[in-house]
Amino acid sequence: MAFPNPRPKVIGASDENGMICTYDENNVPVPVRTARSRVRDLIGVFLPAGYPDSVRDDYTAYQVYDSLQAFSSTMAGLLSSRAVLQGFGIGDSGSSATTAVLFTIVQECTGRLATILFAHRYGRAIEPECKFYRFFADIVNDSALFLDIFSPALSTLPKVLALCGAGILRALCGVSGGAAKASLSAHFAKTGNLAELNAKDGSQETVISLMGMLVGSLLLQVVHEKDTVLAWMVVLVTIHLWTNYKAVRSVHMRSLNKQRLCIVMNEWMRSGKILTPAQVADQEHILNWTCPKISFATTAPRPEDIYTLHRMDLKLCRYMVCRTRTGSTMTGKVIYLPEHATAWDGILAWAEAFTGRRTQENDDMFMAFQDAGWDTEINALETGRMIRLVI
Asked: How far apart are CA 350 and CA 346, in angstroms?
């Protein structure tokens, strides 16, 4: 005799972070309240839902160092803000509010002009080189802090120049830091949760900034002498730059920019293996990498390049690599892409120009890059004007 299968019964409910309640025999919900659930609820205020499964593996290390650098930066910012107010004449009976306002207007105007010019000149390069520009942003910001610190001791004209310089440096920090951070957030968001990740990152920064302002306010009460202020600034800026450097070093970007592709191809030529993003990140330089003399075309082809291109079957070629000359000396290589080129075509073109080996017909390489964890659909190689040949 066959027995009917029992009907399924709902025994509990859960969210992205785990079980939130169970149901008794009368289907009455019983909230799950344990020490673990309380910690989970607290973490949920500051971390994306589903953490750590909803973000990439390098998210935690980056956020720890990023929080530490924000704490030290906030404290250094308070010291510099006091110096700026002193430079504006706050506390000086011989200074006027109008003078302070004029200083502010000049500083704001120069900073906003710098924002426009920097974004126009380097905007396209920030995403491919987001680790460099994230660190660069804090270098120029800390430089601005030191200009603020020294400004009260200067006479009127040098003071104006120092404050304008600080405004320009902060503008560069705002553009490069903001754009680079957006690119890093897109990298960390694994489940389409970019908006929530940015929102939770803002919550983290708010708490860290509040803690930094609290400790910094206590520091302001005891640090007044110029030498002491300068010593504290050196300590705080050193901590700030070191933690920021560790933060960007911990990121394993999956896009192939020029440096990462060169590292991958060096290992491929040596052992035939494609390194993973984590392995490449261990070898990646943040500031002091020298790019080989290879570039994508940023201007229309020259007559001699046209002659070379006409000897190729342009409708079948996925890219063209031409040598550049200075007089009779070969000085580098320039890559031309047709209008139908994909991001993978650009990767193959750079790989061929760098290694000197033909890669167009090597379809196994595509699978090797995919298996290693690289995103081959992102064009992170072209950092300037993109020229395409119309055939």
From this structure: 6
Find how far residue 285's CA is from the centre of its chain: 14
Averaged pLDDT for residues 26-35: 67
Residue among 48, 71, 183 nearest 123 (CA):
183
Question: What 3-state class would DSSP assign to 319?
Answer: coil
For 18, phi then psi, to 5°, come to 135, -170
Residue 14 has pLDDT above 80, yes or no: no
In this structure, what token pair is assigned to residue 189?
């968001």
Cβ partners under 8 Å of residue 299, min gap 6: 385, 387
Task: Please tell me whether residue 249 adopts helix, strand or coil conformation.
Answer: helix
283, burial (CB in 10 Å: exposed 0-12, middle 13-18, buried 19+)? middle
**Distance between CA atoms of 259 and 261, rounded to whole angstroms?**
5
Q: Is the pLDDT of residue 5 over 70?
A: no
For residue 261, give both structure tokens: 């592709």
Which residues are CB-neighbours of 76 under 8 A, at least 6 positions away? 142, 145, 233, 236, 237, 240
What angle (nearest 5°) sits at the alpha carbon of residue 141, between those of residues 135 and 145? Answer: 145
pLDDT at 36 over 80: no
The structure tokens listed for 236 are: 């705080």
Tell me 189's DSSP state: B
Distance CA 338, CA 322 (A): 14
Whole-number Å distance between alpha carbons of 72 and 239: 7
Longest Cα–Cα distance of the chain, Å, equals 104
CA-closest candidate to residue 69, choices 250, 195, 228, 284:
250
Query: Predicted confidence band at 263 (pLDDT cuts at 50, 70, 90)?
Result: very high
Per residue in 306-339, pLDDT (tens digit) is: 666 655 655 667 788 888 776 666 678 889 888 8
End-to-end CA distance of the chain: 77
Q: At what angle do helices 194-222 and 35-46 cross, to 10 degrees?
A: 90
CB atoms within 10 A of CB 81: 14
* pTM given for the model: 0.86
* Closest listed residue to residue 379, CA positions, set 298, 267, 278, 261: 261
